[in-house]
Amino acid sequence: MLDTAAHIEPWLPLTATDLKQWAYCKRIVYYQHVMPVEFTRTYKMERGKNVEAAVEAMEKRRGFRRYGLERGERRFGVWVKSERLGLSGKLDLLIVTDDACYPVDFKDTEGGVRRNHRIQLTAYALMTEDNLRRPVPAAFVYLVPSKELIRIEIGDDLRKEVISAIDEIRGFVRSERMPEPTPARARCVGCEFRNYCDDIW
Ligand code: SF4
Fold first, then answer.
1. Considering only CA atoms, which of 80, 164, 151, 74 is closest in space to residue 118?
2. Is the pTM of this model over 0.85?
3. Pocket probe mutation, ligand 1, options 116, 192, 193, max atoms within 8 Å of Cβ
4. CA-to-CA distance for 63 and 61, rounded, in angstroms?
5. SS3 153
6. Which of 100, 154, 162, 177 is 20 to 30 A off residue 126, Cα-Cα?
7. Alpha-carbon distance 117 to 105, whole Å?
8. Could you give the domains of the chain?
9. Is the CB of 178 under 6 A from ligand 1?
10. 122-155 CB burial, b ≥16 within 10 A, e <16
C-alpha cells in the first residue's frame, strides 16, 4: 500500500476540480490522489490565470442584465467549502442577490460547455448553498474565446450526479482500484499523465 495522505485519511477531502476531472477522465483523479505522481504545469493551465484576471477587469464594468438579473453583488475569487460533503473550491465569481446566488466560471475553451463543466458548476452550487444558506437555481459559464455567457440550470439530476461521483471517487481511492481510462482517447494525446497509462497505447 502506498503511504500517501489519501490512504491514512478516512475522509478524503475533494475539490470541485476533482469532480470536473472525474467526469473528464477518472484516472486523472486517481493519479492525483493515490499515486505519488509529479506532473508539470502546462501552458494552458498558466494561461488560465492570465485570462481570469482579464475577464475579471472586464466583468467589473458590466451590468447584470445579461445574467437576467436586475441587480446583485459581485464577489470575485470566492472560496467555498462544504463540511457535509468534504468538498472545497474557488469560484471565479459569485453573484449574490437578495434571495439567491449564482456561481460564474470563466472558461478559456473552444467547443462550448461540456458535461464536466456542468458537474464542476454544480459542485460549486452545492457548496455555495451550504456556505451562504441561499438557493442556487443556476450557474453561468463565460466562454472567453467566443464571449458567450451560458446559463446552466442546477437541477436534481446534476446534484445527484455530483453526490454519487463524490462517493465513487472515495470508493476508488480507498480500495486503490485503478479506474478505466476515458473512452474518449483523443483526450489522452495532450494529457499530463499519459506516461502512466501505458496500457492504452
Ligand atoms: S492518458 Fe488518457 S486515460 Fe490516462 S489519465 Fe490521461 S486522459 Fe486519462
1. 151
2. yes
3. 193
4. 7
5. strand
6. 177
7. 9
8. 5-196 (3.90.320.10)
9. no
10. bbbbbbbbebbeeebebbbbbbbeeeeebebebe
Q: 22-63: per-residue pLDDT in tens? A: 999 999 999 988 876 665 545 445 556 666 776 777 777 788
Contact indicator for 143, 150 with CB cutoff of 8 Å: yes
13 Cα to the center of ligand 1, angstroms: 22
Question: How many Cα atoms occupy the beta-carbon half-sphere of 86 within 13 Å?
Answer: 13
Segment (H or E) for 78: strand 73-82
User: Which phi and psi (to 5°) does residue 6 adopt?
Assistant: -60, -25
Q: Are 92 and 108 in contact (CB under 8 A)?
A: no
Q: Is the CB of 7 under 6 A from ligand 1?
A: no
One-letter amino acid for residue 66 of the chain: R
Measure CA 42 to chain center: 18
